[in-house]
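input
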Amino acid sequence: MPGLRIRKAEITDAPRLANIAYRAWESGILPILSKQDDARDSERRRLTRAVGHGWRYAIVAEIDDVVVGWCSRQPGRAYIPYLFVMPEIQGHGIGARLLDRMERMLELEGASRIHLETPADHVRAVRFYEKQGYSILALKTQGRDGRDPFSSVHLEKRLKPYDGIIDEQ
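output
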């Protein structure tokens, strides 16, 4: 996408990141939940907390200085808990560019595999990750005592870790 720039997230991005995450969740995941009654408020709070704790490990995509998507990693692991793009511009390669950049960053740190998960019923997301080279490892059902089961797909991609010397010129 022309004019797309990827950079490290800054603390001032946090409210925008939380908003993008919520809007993407609302359009992609909320419709597949069986109980939607109080899901909106609790998910908005959860995503806001997640951004507050994880913005340091995130990268953002900007178009004309406006943040339109973001991807984060879990510190100390090759695991991506969040990848969100504004719903109205999904499907234009922004998520793929963010994911690719995060993978390259992890390769430089020596990671040989990367993991993530997404809701099993979110077919568009599962297909997106498969198209990016991820393979399904497992299906995990969540929920208590069999009530409101929610299944997630755990995916993995093999990376090519960088094993050379990085010159300090």
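quick obs: The chain has four helices and eight strands.
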